[in-house]
Amino acid sequence: MTKPLHDLHDVELAALAAAGGRREFGELVRRHGSAVRALLRRMGAQAAEADDVAQDAFLTAFQRSAEFRGEGTFAAWVKRIAARQYLKRKSRDARYVAEIESEEMAPAVDTPGLVDLDEALKSLSETERLCVSLCHGAGMSHPEIAAAMNLPLGTVKSHVKRGLDKLRARLTPEPAQYGRAAHVV
What we know:
By secondary structure, this protein is an all-alpha fold. It folds into two domains: 1-92, RNA polymerase sigma factor, region 2, helix turn helix motif (Rna Polymerase Sigma Factor, Chain: A, Orthogonal Bundle); 107-173, Arc Repressor Mutant, subunit A (Orthogonal Bundle), CATH 1.10.10. 65% of the residues lie in helices and 0% in strands. The protein is built from nine helices and no strands. The protein has helices at residues 10-18, 22-43, 47-63, 74-92, 94-101, 117-122, 126-137, 142-149, 153-171. Helix 7 (126-137) crosses helix 9 (153-171).
């Protein structure tokens, strides 16, 4: 008797998919599809584009499922595929290349109260958002990001650090928000 699909580990599902198991691969898509689309949205893709790139990434992952060895998580593997495909798509867009060359810092938006991560990411420049998303969302190393974006390694490190510093400043609540009791002397 075989286990139900939901009881199988991602490595087992990928191995079965590599042998042509479409249902098993469908289970992997069900498990990880929303996380892949969320990463793409954080990288700057609109909803329809995120869906398209995610679909292409899963198709590529299905075709290359024999290459997945289980050394990392399946989610990280397919996120890397999706991130690279998104970057290729963006690099084909001449307007994007011009934007990176003449890029200015995105203005900070002053929002009272809590800000969610997606909103905070929108306050970063395009390159900072991509570098931070690839590093912390797709699990890519700085050298991998540098190669994928065709940027010097030091530049990638600077964008990641600057982006994280901006996110930290934006997502850290102000001490005054907690309110202090009046101290009477």
